[in-house]
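User: C-alpha cells for this one?
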Amino acid sequence: MENSVLTAFLIFLVCCLPSLCTFIGIDNVGRPIVSGALVGLILGDLETGIICGANIELIWLGVFAIGASNPPDMTAGTVLGTAYVILTSATVESAVLLAVPVATAGKLIGELRWTVIDVALGHKADSYALEGNTRGVQVMHWAATAINILFKPIVIALAFYFGIDLIEGIVAAIPTWLTDGMMYATGIIPAIGFALIARMIMSKETVLFLILGFALASFFNLSTIAIAVLACIIVAYQIFNNKRTGREVVADDNEF
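Assistant:
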C-alpha cells in the first residue's frame, strides 16, 4: 500500500487525538493499544494493528507522565512501528524493535518544542504584557496551543510519508545475527513493562490473585477472557460482601 497524502493525513489526525482529548480530560487515547488499532484501521489491517499495539503497550504498561517527568512518546513509536509492520509485512517483534528508538526521538522533539519554541513564545508574550497588548498575549497563547497539538503530528506524518521506505532499507541492511539478537531482546522488554505495573499494584493481599491467574492459565489452559470473567466475579463478590458487612456493623452500632 502506497503512502498516499490522504493516508498520511489520517495518520496525522491519529497523532493529534492524544493532545485534543487531553483538553477534555481523556488521557488514554494516546496509549499504544489505541493508536495501534487506529493505524491498523487506516491501513486496512485492523488485526495486525491491535496485535502490534498490544505488544508495544506492554513496554510502557506501568509508565505515565508524572509532573515534569515525561516518558518516551508512545504515540510516535506505536504509529510508525505499526505502520512499518503492516506496510512491509514484517514480524510483530519489528514493531517493538522500532517503537522504542522512535518513541525516544519523539520525546526529544517534544523537548525541543518545550525548551525552544514555547520559551520563545513565552518571552514574546511577556513583552506584549509589558506593553499592555492583550491581543498579542492572546495570539501567543493560541500559537503555543496550536504548536502543542500540531508540531509532533506533522513530524510523524512526514516521517510516515517519506520514511517507511527508508526504514525498510535500513532494517534490510542490518545483519541477520544482529536482527535476531535484537528480536530476542525485544521479547524481554514487555516483561519489564508488566513488572513495572505489577510492582505498583501488588501487595501481600493481592499477590495471591496473581498466582491464581498464573495457575489458571498454566495448568488449566484457560484463556485470558475466561480468567478476566472469573476476576470480575471475584471483584463483584468482594464489593457486595464488603457492603453487606458495612451494613451489619452499622446495625450493631445502633443497637448499643
